[in-house]
């Protein structure tokens, strides 16, 4: 075969230098891990998360050299069904205080707070270092608390707080991911066995996807020196890597088998691989670039979490794409004789359409208007609930309560409501105004305590920086951070109470921060930038498809169908997670909203992953059109012959995404469910009914302005449409 493009040249080189290609890939994977181990991973810090008014308040205190307002709490109570004396509780509190003061990184241990009915003591612990240290070293504090518990077995001594809760969630998420991995790998292998009927052919895509995931994790750690890791890297790489890695290998491997079958086995392994590269290799390249283009839109958000997600996704998709185009041809050549093991090799034409798919696709080409209208109505009906979607960042109430620190948090709030969620009010003013600022902040806290949106408590202390230019006070609320009352209290504090108490200060600048303020400002920025992200993804996807197929119509169809698929997925998400009816089925507690990061990330991933199926189907159809088959006949032949492999690919993706529904973290559960539903809708309703109907209706105009739109007068040269089917398709495009 002549050197037509880079893809076929790379495949030919890999096939003829198989061992060198395989060893080179293994060396690349190892190198990624070694370099990452040497340079480490840079985690995101609080500076990277700052946004809006909350970020401004945090920057003011940081510039003034003031320590963070976050702190841990140690709750000391009697064990369930038992009683404890005040002396026992005081002795335990004194022991906890002494142990914590011995830790170098503890800045201060506050005075114990007492509750008399029932008896309980709360010991506040203020961390000396910033959040980076806290994340890496909180286990020291937790171990110290455990030591105090061991010394007082008659009491319950537990620690809670934002840092220990995050640590507990990480531990729980690690367990959940292990469960997801245990589900994903066997399910993927079983599905591929059904697709190929051979163990070796099924194992290659899984092994290649796993190696891509490993390499991507190493590269993501290296990339964190440019874009800090926000903590979700491993989850996203596993999610995306298994999905696209298996799909890309599946498309390529299936085509290689078809070429061998078409030649009746009378073709060399290298030649079969080269033929597959010229077709499915192009599909993999276009799909990989489409996914990458979509993921780039996340950078527009300017949010460290989305930037980290985008970086991880782009890396693993590109690695999986490169693996399929480089080392996969070598593996296929070396495993050629064993590919069909343990089944006996058959050389029938594997690209002939199956009876089931032929029957399902026939309405799209015989009655395209009716088929299109029916499928569109189904998708639009599913999309309707999306109009009621509410979004918010998750608080403790929406986190997995298997985490011990969260259970302790709930008990602490019952006994000490003022030690729960707080608003942080920061004022920057000339040093000469420090006393006036302190008085105004105390007055503000007193006004808040008299308001039903806040905790009725005496005003806490005002903290002032060493140079007396920055002052801060904490104002507690009795709501969890994701409750509607929390946002209402923030708006009331920012809009009325703070201006009334602080607005008259000379030369003063003030801002309100805290968990609630930070979440509210983050959601607002997401909403403000969402239209630009959507526009970027849509336009860039359109351009990629236009360049790949030289058809404005094909590009427009891809964008429109993807938008419809995303809308239906959002509708299903709102229908399930904003209500309580599905709680026992999916093991979650509804918060009445969708985690704000999920819809945007879901939209971007969908726009990319949907290209897998779209590109594969359109490429098969275009192959037939280029060989002289009329468009309507080519639609039937191309869509039906590719339906089996798309079904297998979709089931693989669904098994990967659905495994995340079993995690305890609501955000991962929603993302896994949304992606699984979207893939099912995209692979079956969109690709089986809507896309073939549209292309059948448009006929040769589907390829405008490509030369294919003007070159269908010639009689068919060769068609893969099943014998006899072409006569039943009606008018030809």
UniProtKB/TrEMBL annotation:
<keyword id="KW-0472">Membrane</keyword>
<feature type="domain" description="Membrane transport protein MMPL">
    <location>
        <begin position="400"/>
        <end position="710"/>
    </location>
</feature>
<feature type="transmembrane region" description="Helical">
    <location>
        <begin position="556"/>
        <end position="578"/>
    </location>
</feature>
<keyword id="KW-1133">Transmembrane helix</keyword>
<feature type="transmembrane region" description="Helical">
    <location>
        <begin position="232"/>
        <end position="253"/>
    </location>
</feature>
<feature type="transmembrane region" description="Helical">
    <location>
        <begin position="183"/>
        <end position="201"/>
    </location>
</feature>
<protein>
    <submittedName>
        <fullName>MMPL family transporter</fullName>
    </submittedName>
</protein>
<keyword id="KW-1003">Cell membrane</keyword>
<feature type="transmembrane region" description="Helical">
    <location>
        <begin position="312"/>
        <end position="333"/>
    </location>
</feature>
<keyword id="KW-0812">Transmembrane</keyword>
<feature type="transmembrane region" description="Helical">
    <location>
        <begin position="671"/>
        <end position="690"/>
    </location>
</feature>
<dbReference type="InterPro" id="IPR004869">
    <property type="entry name" value="MMPL_dom"/>
</dbReference>
<feature type="transmembrane region" description="Helical">
    <location>
        <begin position="369"/>
        <end position="388"/>
    </location>
</feature>
<feature type="transmembrane region" description="Helical">
    <location>
        <begin position="273"/>
        <end position="300"/>
    </location>
</feature>
<dbReference type="Pfam" id="PF03176">
    <property type="entry name" value="MMPL"/>
</dbReference>
<feature type="domain" description="Membrane transport protein MMPL">
    <location>
        <begin position="77"/>
        <end position="368"/>
    </location>
</feature>
<feature type="transmembrane region" description="Helical">
    <location>
        <begin position="530"/>
        <end position="549"/>
    </location>
</feature>
<feature type="transmembrane region" description="Helical">
    <location>
        <begin position="598"/>
        <end position="618"/>
    </location>
</feature>
<dbReference type="InterPro" id="IPR050545">
    <property type="entry name" value="Mycobact_MmpL"/>
</dbReference>
<feature type="transmembrane region" description="Helical">
    <location>
        <begin position="639"/>
        <end position="665"/>
    </location>
</feature>
């Amino acid at each position: 075969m002549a050197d037509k493009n880079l893809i076929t040249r790379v495949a030919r080189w890999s096939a003829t230098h198989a061992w060198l290609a395989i060893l080179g890939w293994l060396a690349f994977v190892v190198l990624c891990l070694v370099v990452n181990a040497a340079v480490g991973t840079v985690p995101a810090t609080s500076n990277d998360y700052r946004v809006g008014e909350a970020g401004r308040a945090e920057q003011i205190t940081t510039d003034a050299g003031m320590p963070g307002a976050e702190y841990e709490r140690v709750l000391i109570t009697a064990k369930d069904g038992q009683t404890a004396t005040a002396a026992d509780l005081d002795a335990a509190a004194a022991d906890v205080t002494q142990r914590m003061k011995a830790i170098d990184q503890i800045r201060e241990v506050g005075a114990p707070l007492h509750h008399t009915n029932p008896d309980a003591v709360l010991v506040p612990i203020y961390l000396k270092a910033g959040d980076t240290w806290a994340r890496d070293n909180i286990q020291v504090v937790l171990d110290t608390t455990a030591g105090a518990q061991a010394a007082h077995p008659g009491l319950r001594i537990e620690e809670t707080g934002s840092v220990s809760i995050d640590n507990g969630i990480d531990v729980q998420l690690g367990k959940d991911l292990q469960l997801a991995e245990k589900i994903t790998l066997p399910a993927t292998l079983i599905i591929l066995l059904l697709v190929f009927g051979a163990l070796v052919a099924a194992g290659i895509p899984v092994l290649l996807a796993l190696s891509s995931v490993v390499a991507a994790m190493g590269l993501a750690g290296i990339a964190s020196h440019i874009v800090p890791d926000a903590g979700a890297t491993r989850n996203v790489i596993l999610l995306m890597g298994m999905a696209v890695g298996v799909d890309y290998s599946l498309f390529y491997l299936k085509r290689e088998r078809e070429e061998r079958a078409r030649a009746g086995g009378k073709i060399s392994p290298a030649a079969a691989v080269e033929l597959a590269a010229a077709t499915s290799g192009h599909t993999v390249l276009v799909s990989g670039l489409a996914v990458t283009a979509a993921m780039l839109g996340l950078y527009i958000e300017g949010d460290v979490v989305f930037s980290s997600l985008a970086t991880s996704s782009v890396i693993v998709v590109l690695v999986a794409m490169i693996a399929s185009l480089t080392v996969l041809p070598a593996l296929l050549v070396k495993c050629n004789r064993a590919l069909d093991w343990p089944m006996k090799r058959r050389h029938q034409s594997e690209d002939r359409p199956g009876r089931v798919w032929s029957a399902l696709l026939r309405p799209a080409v015989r009655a395209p208007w009716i088929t299109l209208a029916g499928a569109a109505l189904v998708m639009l009906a599913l999309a309707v609930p999306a109009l009621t979607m509410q979004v918010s960042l998750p608080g403790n109430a929406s986190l997995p309560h298997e985490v011990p620190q969260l259970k302790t948090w709930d008990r602490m709030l019952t006994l000490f409501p003022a030690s729960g969620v707080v608003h942080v009010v920061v004022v920057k003013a000339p040093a000469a105004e420090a006393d006036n600022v302190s008085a105004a902040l105390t007055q503000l806290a007193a006004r808040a305590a008299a308001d039903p949106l806040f905790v009725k408590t005496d005003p806490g202390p005002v903290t002032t920086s060493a140079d007396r230019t920055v002052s801060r006070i904490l104002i507690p609320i009795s709501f969890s951070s994701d409750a509607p009352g929390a946002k209402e209290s923030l708006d009331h504090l920012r809009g009325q109470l703070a201006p009334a108490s602080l607005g008259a200060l000379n030369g003063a600048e003030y801002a309100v921060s805290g968990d609630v303020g930070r979440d509210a400002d983050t959601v607002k920025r997401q909403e403000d930038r969402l239209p630009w992200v959507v526009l970027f993804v849509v336009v860039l996807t359109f351009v990629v498809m236009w360049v790949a197929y030289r058809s404005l119509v094909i590009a427009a169809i891809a964008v429109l169908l993807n938008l419809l698929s995303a809308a239906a997925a959002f509708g299903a998400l709102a229908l399930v997670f904003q209500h309580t009816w599905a709680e026992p089925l999916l093991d979650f507690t509804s918060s009445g909203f969708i985690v704000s990061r999920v819809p945007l990330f879901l939209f971007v991933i969908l726009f990319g992953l949907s290209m897998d199926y779209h590109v594969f189907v359109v490429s098969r159809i275009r192959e037939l059109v280029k060989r002289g088959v009329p468009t309507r006949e080519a639609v039937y032949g191309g869509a039906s012959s590719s339906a089996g492999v798309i079904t297998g690919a979709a089931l693989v993706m669904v098994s990967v995404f659905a495994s995340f529904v079993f995690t305890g973290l609501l955000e991962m559960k929603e993302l896994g469910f949304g992606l699984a539903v979207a893939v099912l809708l995209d692979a079956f309703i969109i690709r089986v009914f809507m896309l073939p109907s549209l292309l059948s209706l448009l006929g040769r105009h589907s390829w405008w302005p490509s030369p294919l739109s003007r070159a269908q007068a010639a009689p068919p040269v060769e068609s893969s449409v099943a014998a006899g089917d072409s006569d039943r398709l009606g008018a030809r495009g």
